[in-house]
Structures are given as C-alpha cells and as structure tokens.
Design brief:
The chain is an alpha/beta fold and about 350 residues long. The protein has 2 domains: about 100 residues, 2-Layer Sandwich (Enolase-like, domain 1); about 230 residues, TIM Barrel. The protein is built from 12 helices and 13 strands. Strands 5-6-7-8-9-10-11 form a 7-stranded parallel sheet. The protein starts with a strand and ends with a helix.
C-alpha cells in the first residue's frame, strides 16, 4: 500500500463574502491511496483562519500520514486527532479504496438516484441589492429553506432584507436560517436576537464568537428563537470535552462539518451526545470540492435527518469536478446517469 497527497486550489466563480472577509479561493488537499491495483481518494479541506488545523505543520502531517499509511485507518485517525480535516480525508480515502466504485462510498437509495436530500440555499454576504438578488434566485430555484450570512453589512439593512422576505413569504412558505459567524458584539447580542425574532427565523448560527461559553449559555437560555452552535465545536477533541460543552451551553441545535470535527467518526460522537441532551443537529459541508461533498452527502443520507442539510455548495467553483451530484428544487440528487470527471492519474 502506498499513499500520496496533492494540493488543489478551488477558484470561486464569484467572490463570496462572510463576516471574516471575501473568499476568492479555497485550499484543499487530496489524499490518494493505492493498493493492489486499486485507488481511493479522500479530501482534506481547510478554511484558512477558521479550521483548527490551519497551522504551519499541516503539510508535514499529511506527509507523515502518507509515510505511515500501513498503520491503517484506525491508528492514523487517532494519530491525527488535532488535524480533523486530515482525519476526514483518511476515513474517506480508505472507504473509497475499499469500495467497488471509488466514488460510491455508502450505497443507498440516494446513490441509486431514488431519493434526494433536502438542502438549504446559501445566500452570501454583500450589498443589499446583491443579497436580494441571490434570495430571489434561490426562491425561483425552488428552495423552501434559505440560509443568509449576516454580520458584515449594516444591521439595519440586514433587518430590512429579512423584512422584505417576510412581506412576500410566511415562515410556512420559506424557512430562514441566518449565520452570524460570531459577528455580534457580546453585549448587544441579545438585543439583536430580539430584533431578529420579528421575522420568525428558524435559527441563528453562532451569534457571538466562540469560547465565550458563559455568555453563549446565557444567550441560549434567553434567546427568543433557536441558536445553533457551529464554530464553537471547532477544536473540541475529547468525548468528555464535547459532553461538557453541550451540557453547559445547552444550545437548541449544533451544526456539524465533518472536515472541522474529525470526519464521520467525530461527527457521530457529537450527534450521539446531542441526541441524549435533546439538542437538534444538521450537517453541512465546509466548502469542499465535489469529492468531499459527495462523501458527506452519502453519509448524511444514512443518518436519516429530515431537516434541510447544508450541502448545496458544489456549484461555487470554476474548477470543481463534474460528478453525479446535482441540485434541483431545493434538493440534492445523485444522478447515476452522470459521470465523474476526476483523473486519478493526475494526482497519483
């Protein structure tokens, strides 16, 4: 058995705004395993400035994994505990290698093109006109749930955008999720949540920055509508730490990105703890290429969560890989009539 790693820069079709700035590229890495004439691929995806494993020795760790690929999936997962995106790439690559089809990791009604996954439509930050344009596009595309990034433009303008949606669509017609990416001032957060509650929102992701657990717990206790933890989960490695965090904050939801929380195994740990505490959850991509998105979608389908998932990011890039994933009417489909365009030889 041998392994290699390869950097790949994904180029956004249009600059995408978050409260942390504008994204034009997304760095990712492919882990390729070869054994007895077969090949498997995993994706190790970083979001610079956000992933806990965005650190100078990242490539060195990937190199170490390739040199020690003989240790196997279980041992390598344990040895990369501080590199959750590499853990995810390891799980994916071994599953890909073991599968009859390297891109069909978890066969199901989803991969057989019988049943889609309900997803939300993502609206990026920008000026008021740009955000309203995106919202209109998502509604025309059949999405019943949209997620708006907020926290970068004037808050009153964001309120006006939400108000304009609700003037045309009730909460029963369009579910709205908002994501502040930790942008709210600690002392103004509850005031802003009360203002937002007018629009009958489904939830808000990470209203304040992570690591203010006392304040977040207080917000979750007093919020007028549900709070979902996202960044708060990053860098929490042990089972006990995960239990302690959720028991203390008691959020209404958690949002799970396998690349951020230790792949499928790490995600499953969070789910099991959340369900014991009656905390809801859903899964989202971390802007991976279609290689990683495909694996996340297939695994997510098996979890049987009926809520809209955050898996509609495949069309963001100019240089993504053509694949059977497609979005129609607010659903993610796996169309077996479409082929994968990923050249193993290019990366081996």
């Amino acid at each position: 058995m041998k392994a290699s790693y390869h950097q790949y820069m994904l180029d956004f079709k249009r600059p995408s705004g978050t409260s942390r700035g504008i994204l034009t590229q997304k760095e990712t890495w492919f882990l390729i395993i070869e054994h007895q004439g077969k090949m498997g691929v995993g994706e190790c995806g970083l979001l610079l400035g956000l992933s806990i494993d965005d650190r100078p020795d990242y490539e060195e760790k990937l190199k170490w994994v390739c040199q020690h690929i003989h240790l196997g999936e279980e041992q390598l997962w344990l040895e990369t505990i501080e590199f959750p995106s590499i853990q995810f790439g390891i799980e994916m690559a071994f599953k890909s290698l073991e599968s009859d089809n390297p891109f069909e990791l978890f066969p199901s009604d989803f991969t057989n093109s019988n049943v889609p996954i309900l997803i939300n439509g993502l609206v990026w930050m920008g000026n008021k006109a740009f955000m309203k344009q995106q919202i209109q596009e998502k509604i025309e595309q059949g999405f019943k749930c949209i997620k708006l990034k907020i926290g970068a433009i004037n808050f009153d303008e964001e309120l006006a955008i939400l108000r304009s949606i609700r003037e045309d669509f009730t909460a029963d017609q369009i579910e709205i999720r908002v994501d502040a990416n930790g942008a709210f001032d600690l002392h103004k957060a509850l005031y802003k949540l009360n203002q937002l509650s007018e629009f009958k929102l489904h939830s808000i992701e990470q209203p304040i920055a992570k690591s203010h657990t006392d304040m977040m717990a207080d917000l979750c206790k007093n919020t007028p509508f549900p709070i979902a933890l996202d960044e708060e989960l990053i860098g929490v490695f042990s089972l006990q730490e995960k239990q302690d965090l959720l028991s203390k904050i008691k959020p209404q939801f958690i949002i799970l990105k396998p690349s951020f929380v230790g792949g499928f195994r790490g995600t499953k740990e969070w789910i099991q703890i959340a369900e014991k505490l009656n905390i809801g959850w859903w899964i989202t991509s971390a802007l991976e290429s279609n290689i990683g998105l495909n694996a996340i979608a297939q695994w997510t389908y098996l979890q049987k969560n009926k809520m809209p998932q955050g898996l509609g990011t495949g069309a963001l890039y100019t240089n993504n890989f053509d694949c059977p994933l497609k979005v129609e009417n607010g659903n993610l489909y796996y169309d077996k009539n479409l082929e994968w365009h990923f050249n193993f030889k290019k990366f081996s």
